[in-house]
Design brief:
The protein has 455 residues and is of the alpha+beta class. It has helices at 6-54, 157-193, 195-208, 224-267, 272-301, 310-324, 346-363, 397-403, 420-430; strands spanning 56-58, 64-66, 83-88, 98-99, 121-126, 132-141, 148-156, 308-309, 331-335, 341-342, 367-374, 383-390, 434-439, 445-454.
Amino acid sequence: MRPSSLSGRLILSSLLVSLVLLAATGLLLASLFTAALERNFDQRLHAVLDGLLANIDVTPEGAPRLSSAIADPRFGLPLSGWYWQVTPLDAPPGAKDLASNSLLERRLPVPPDLAGRNGARAFYLTDARGVTLRAIGQAFTLPGGTGAFSVLVAGSYDELAAEARSFNQALVTSLVLLALGLALAVFVQVRFGLRPLRALQANLLAIRHGGASELKGEYPAEIRPVAEELNLLIQSNAEIVERARTQVGNLAHALKTPLSVLTNEASGQGTTLAAKVTEQAGLMRDQVNLYLDRARRAARARGLGAVTEVKPVLDALARTLERINRDKGVSVTVDCPDGLRFRGERQDLEEMVGNLMDNACKWAAKRVVVSARPQGAASGRGRLSITVEDDGPGLPPGQRAAALQRGQRLDETKPGSGLGLAIVRETAGMYGGGVQLEDAALGGLRAVVMLPSAF
């Protein structure tokens, strides 16, 4: 799975959206839970505040006093984190106040704006031990008193934070498990949803390898029109190739017969004109053969589905050339793995390799070695190399480019037309390949042709 693939894009985009939504949901739930905890905590503090107000009055000296003890034992434990205190507002220094036993001799700071507020106010404090406190305070006028008093109740916020942490841990665990489940579901959904595309790719690969002639099978409604159009395209391609072959044959018959008549008529005359006609008719015949051969190779190279086993072709050519060169004593060795296949017509492979092997046998002293190897594959678009080398005199590097040109004969002592290597180069080029001439390990020339393979 790669980000550039369709499945990779679908999976990554789905996971990204899912993660963003899960993170937003987690933050929202954590915020709502914390707010609910704070409201519940404030209600508990309000209950203590109400109970405290119900049990406090003022002495004749104007000092607050507690008529009955608060039932919660945490207010009696020293520095327990749970405190209450009643402090006179706008009283001179040294005025008596009242506080829970948990505060000992310490007092909590009273917010300066508490006297001017209507109703209770919630805020945070820190006690002598550095514990964060959640507190509510309100200004009251106590029965029997002449001045206002601030009544403050505080509880340890650590208990609230501990509950929030416990909830957040459970929430994170749940969201992580949900994210993993969503990731698995997205992966399965995308893989299942794109399965028809993989089947379509496999069928196209089978057509390229010659295992099928059209796309078969049932496809979803979204892909079925594509498969039908591809089948029509394949059928149209086959018809074009067949039509081209037919027209090439008809053209060959229509042109060769008049040229043969002209040549035969001119050959019986001893005039200069007859000689010129014979010469030009021969050139025309060569040109007709050249372009007809090129058209036939182009039509075969552009067709779909043609696949040829390489080893049987090489073995058959080796046996034929050994018999032809028996008097010279040339041995042809073939090294080709079984199952290696050329994606193209057998006739074209025979023509390319046959020309290379024939040239090698002409120039070889005793040995010609032919080897074929795969060069890797990616999505059915692999390549193969066929190497033909001999132990002859070789060819200087400066003459190799000229040897690949049509009609170039570098040595008139050897039979031939100078078209063999050019035909190999042109035919290989029509299949998207090429040919190279190099120094051979045997001492002569090595020709390497690269062609498309079918695996």
